[in-house]
Amino acid sequence: MSQEPADCARVLKTCKSVVALTGAGISAESGIHTFRGKGGLWEKENAEDLATIEGFKKDPKAFWEWFDERRKEVAKAKPNPAHLALAEMERSFDSFAVITQNIDGLHKLAKSTVVVELHGNIWRVKCTRDHEVSENRDVPLGEIPPLCYCGAVLRPDVVLFGEPLDPVNIERAYLLSETCNAMLVVGTSAVVSPAAQLPLIAKRAGAVVVEVNPEETPLTQMCDFSFRESATNVLPEIAMLLG
After folding, report:
1. Is the whole model's pTM more than 0.85, yes or no?
2. Does residue 20 share a domain with residue 2?
3. Which of 33, 107, 119, 131 is catalytic?
4. Beta bridge mates, 95
5. CATH number of domain containing 58
6. CB 3.0-4.6 Å disulfide test: which of 90, 108, 130, 139 passes with 75?
7. DSSP state of 172
8. Which of 54, 30, 49, 28 is closest to 40 using CA atoms?
9. Same domain? 128 vs 221
């Protein structure tokens, strides 16, 4: 298992189709709290009570007060060098897509053009009556809970804990994983399914799997390249080597 970005870039140059699977670790480097791990939001009781579909249904006002704080945090964040490097890598391949577990929208801000947001986007809201989706970037929110023009309560257009993922996004992610020549697995703990299955699908289909994570994960031993460094250090170097 190589630890050299130059070796990794050399292999990636032989690939036509590349997918990046990103998790909370890449956005943590932009100052956004993760849910799991030390200092994660799950260590705070209100997060465990509120960041669920049950929490939203039980008390929309308390949920939105908590979620509005998450929006304020994300609003301050900017794409970091790892996000920018992934966007830059698009020019090096015939096909390049980002599959992300993050809801912060930073990949799109970094100008990645093909982004599959498995868990939705914090800047979209959905009517609980007619399910119409719209953008809302008000920080802070003008009213809590926010209401649709029809009078119904709005909810975030994100996958809350206890909800299934959008089958259209999952199907697209599976297809990208099955057909790519290489997958970059960046800042994800590789324990939450179905996202954790995507690198396994890619590997079984013959793809090169590259992991970038300061911590070892359940995927580490199956990876062709595994870097125990931050994404902001490794990805810009690989992007530069790709030219």
Report:
1. yes
2. yes
3. 119
4. 17
5. 3.30.1600.10
6. 139
7. H
8. 28
9. no
